[in-house]
Amino acid sequence: MMKRIMAIGVTMAMLLAGNSARCEDCGIVNSSFEDDGTINDISVQAPTGWNVDLLGGKFYGFVYTGWATDGFYNLSLYLNKRVQYHPGDIGRVSLAEPIRLTGFNWIKFDVMLDTASGAWNPSVCTAVVMIDDDVVWESNSVGPDARGEYEDQVYVVEDKYKDDELHTLSLGMRMNVEAYYYLQWLYQTHWDMVDCNVYCGGEGPIEGDIDGDCCVDANDLKLLAGLWLSEGVEPNDPANLSDVGDDPNSYAIIDFRDFSVYAADWDGSEIGVQELVTYWLEVVDPDYEYNLYREGDIRARGEINFFDLAVLGRNWLRCSGSGEE
After folding, report:
1. pTM of the model
2. How far apart are CA 36 and CA 230, in angstroms?
């Protein structure tokens, strides 16, 4: 029976499909535990690229071929026998080199939960993924038996970790109750294919990049225009750039607040949208360089308004002296 895995504060892989354009691998060392071959005891020899903390022998682990989803080897963690466990006890294997998560999109992995005998009671023990000392993903906590293979589990990296600090990624298992076991390896957690990717060469998505291609350009403007002043837009819609969620029905409206976010990242070499928006509806001199529309200026001063935007649109991506129409 297939179980569901809960990801704390995150979503499933299918939600990533529209946001993964031009993502790149983040380069976790020995991500499928292939570099060393068999390791009989990871407390004696840590896997290349990883550090080990088995809580003074409460946990046990090795690298072997028992359950490999990528290559020939995988990492296995177990409970030890004749040990007193307390709630919150965690055995973990962590990246030896902390990583900066600024441009990260997601972290993905395969995990299998098994036991030496009987059901895996999720109220007793859970598999966990951690960033620093925070549990950001944990295995199923619903139902009497969580045993099973769970491939392509995804943790979407939260914004609070996308700072300039270095962070440590860990795989582990956590005890949730007071327990003492005579049976060795009663709970078993197997890990493989720890993967991740980053946006736009690691610099992160650009505000205003609606279609996820790492550029703010006409393609984004087209998407923005398609929802212009539309009501009933989900607050997390990529085109809702201003992230306004104060609508009484928890919906947003695509409006000039979104357009201003888009304009802030405009990188065109001609007259930029940012400058246009900066003086939007401002009174300026008629010969001001961003007063693109001058017809009908009956006074000695003009206004930056939709007439100017219309001129910009008529000349969109057109180049002078190129011979192109």
Report:
1. 0.63
2. 56
Supply φ then ψ for residue 237, to 5 degrees.
-60, 135
Cα 191 from Cα 109, distance rounded (Å): 7
Structure tokens, 118: 């009987």
pLDDT in tens, 190-232: 999 999 887 776 666 666 777 777 777 777 777 777 776 666 6
Two structure tokens written together for 322:
């190129």
Q: Structural domain boundaries of the chain? A: 13-202, 218-314
| CA atoms of 295 and 297, how far apart (whole Å) | 6
> Across the chain, which distance is largest between two alpha carbons, in Å?
93
Amino acid, res. 57: G
What is the DSSP pairing of strand 74-79 with strand 83-85? unpaired
**Domain 13-202 sits in CATH 3.40.50.1480:** no
Which parts of 255-311 are beta strand (E)?
283-284, 302-303
How many Å from the N-terminal Cα to the C-terminal Cα in the chain?
62
Q: Where are the beta strands (DSSP E) in 15-69?
A: 24-25, 50-53, 59-64
Residue 164 confidence (pLDDT)? 80
Cα distances (Å, whole numbers) of residue 47 to 28, 90, 116, 175, 196: 13, 18, 24, 23, 19
Q: Which residues contact 61 (CB under 8 A, 6 or more apart)?
A: 41, 42, 43, 52, 54, 75, 76, 77, 78, 91, 93
